[in-house]
From TrEMBL:
GO molecular function, one term: transmembrane transporter activity
Membrane topology note: Multi-pass membrane protein
Gene Ontology cellular component terms for the protein in this record: plasma membrane
Pfam families in alphabetical order: AA_permease_2
Region (Disordered): 1-21
InterPro entries cross-referenced by the UniProt entry: AA/rel_permease1, APC_superfamily
Record carries keyword Transmembrane helix: yes
PANTHER family in alphabetical order: AMINO ACID TRANSPORTER-RELATED, MEMBRANE PROTEIN
TM region(s), chain numbering: 30-53, 59-81, 102-128, 148-166, 173-193, 213-234, 246-265, 303-328, 349-369, 375-401, 408-429, 441-461
Protein name as annotated: Amino acid transporter
Source species of the chain: Nocardioides thalensis
Protein keywords: Cell membrane, Membrane, Transmembrane, Transmembrane helix
Subcellular localization: Cell membrane
Keyword Ribonucleoprotein: no
Length: 469
């Protein structure tokens, strides 16, 4: 199995070794797509309620720990991004330190992770669209049938945009992000004006439960994990060893800080709107009603955020498809997945595979869970668990890399240690202090899924080796 995918080994001028076009993205375009992929408006709308649902009025410490842990992991990722260029995200890095065995393990975890990420993001479209349609009198909008239609349309649209290439993806994703952010900011500050910040209760750490804080961390950190996915675009980026690290760190620093602030500002309003949340209203709709902005703003918010989530879908279809492409080129997935569109320079076959598997996983999760919110919460926690092992491997790998090179980088080593401890304990805490069923089973479901994928990918690779002589 290859140990690196480098930008210098090209098949023809302007093409990387993967067949993708080089130099398409500048620093601003890459960072913009990275940030837009996390749809800040949607993160501000949903991350606080996930932190709040576990920690109550002491929700902000979970948001703070999430930011710190992901920054630590980011410093470890940057250590590799400054040295290596690839299309397989962390998969392209880990083999440089641990060898071929680590790539199969990383491939299995990230394969599961990207499919879950697409499924979870599509579920968010279903939440906001269903909330909007329910408010307009369609009481069945959150049922399986209508939701399946919403999922199919959402994935088809985002896959089509990604299929048309990176330029189109960047333009559409950034536009959706810019349009959606002002309304969520309005609702957030209106909520503060209605309830105040209630500093006495929010800053009373004596009533904080560490187990609840880590449960909130497991749910809310889903809006930050996989932040390094933009490294999959390194081979298509200008000056990737300089620009990719900037794009990587923009997520935990900028968005991590934004979600922390949003959690602190929204917590009193979420507490006041608990009944509306329990009745199935989306968090922003509940906050808009509670703060006196009216049902019109609440309904408009659901529409705007449903559209904004498409920016995230577009981003992760681009990232995940390039990861699938890399696995196919290395013999872990079928050869047909290596197909590149001759005009749009997009991994067309990989996009189709990711879209189909993401849709299938989300539909199955809904069927098993019985309702949309339970399915979404289960997938959100599973996304985090799927990225725990990759982050543990990359943080250890960064330290090994620096020791081999005898490079003095105390900040990176400290960040790697913090990231390793935070992500490791997050998984352990899910077992020691499990959430309510069925979410409590997700730590084991993810583990079993990884084991199964390791076996399947290992067998596929051995067959490719034999067929290639």
């Amino acid at each position: 199995m290859p140990t690196s995918i480098g930008p210098t080994s090209t098949r023809e001028p302007g093409k990387s070794a993967s067949g993708l076009e080089t130099g398409q993205l500048g620093r601003l375009s890459l960072a913009s797509l990275a940030i837009a992929s996390y749809t800040p408006a949607v993160g501000m709308a949903l991350a606080p309620v996930l932190f709040f649902s576990a920690g109550g009025v002491n929700a902000w410490p979970a948001a703070f720990l999430a930011m710190i842990a992901v920054i630590g992991v980011g410093l470890a990722v940057v250590a590799f991004a400054r040295r290596y260029v690839g299309t397989g995200s962390l998969y392209s890095y880990v083999g440089e330190v641990f060898g071929a065995w680590s790539r199969v393990l990383m491939a299995a975890t990230l394969l599961l992770g990207f499919v879950l990420q697409l499924a979870g993001t599509t579920a968010i479209v279903g939440i906001f669209t269903g909330s909007f349609l329910s408010a307009r009198g369609m009481g069945s909008a959150l049922d399986l049938g209508p939701q399946i239609v919403i999922y199919a349309i959402a994935i088809l649209v985002s896959a089509t945009v990604a299929y048309r290439g990176l330029d189109t993806s960047v333009r559409v994703a950034v536009l959706l992000t810019v349009v959606s952010l002002p309304l969520v900011l309005l609702i957030t500050f209106a909520s503060v004006g209605s309830t105040g910040l209630q500093l006495d209760s929010q800053l009373d750490l004596g009533s904080m439960s560490m187990s609840s804080t880590f449960l909130g961390l497991a749910g809310g950190i889903a809006f930050l994990v996989s932040f390094e996915s933009c490294t999959a675009l390194a081979a298509e980026t200008k000056d990737p060893r300089r620009n990719v690290p900037i794009a990587v760190m923009s997520i935990p620093v900028l968005l991590g800080g934004l979600y922390l602030l949003a959690t602190f500002l929204q917590t009193p309003g979420l507490a006041a709107a608990s009944d509306a949340l329990a009745a199935g209203a989306s968090p922003t709709a509940a906050l808009a009603e509670q703060s006196g902005l009216g049902s019109g703003v609440a309904t408009a918010t659901d529409v705007v955020l449903a559209l904004a989530v498409f920016a995230s879908l577009i981003g992760f279809v681009n990232y995940g498809s390039r990861f699938f492409l890399t696995l196919a080129q290395d013999g872990l997935l079928p050869r047909r997945i290596t197909s590149i569109h001759p005009r749009h320079h997009s991994p067309s076959a990989a996009i189709v595979l990711l879209a189909v598997t993401g849709f299938a996983v989300l539909a199955a999760a809904f069927l098993l869970a019985g309702d949309l919110l339970t399915a979404y919460n289960s997938i959100a926690v599973s996304i985090v668990y799927a990225w725990v092992l990759p982050y543990l491997m990359i943080t250890v790998g960064a330290v090994v890399l620096l020791v081999r090179e005898r490079a003095l980088a105390p900040l990176t080593i400290l960040g790697a240690a913090v990231g390793f401890a935070g992500m490791g304990w997050l998984y352990v805490n899910g077992i020691v202090n499990p959430p309510a069923p069925p979410i409590d089973a997700m730590s084991w479901v993810v583990l079993v899924g990884i084991v199964v994928l390791v076996v399947l990918l290992g067998v596929a690779y051995q067959r490719r080796v034999r067929s290639d002589g």
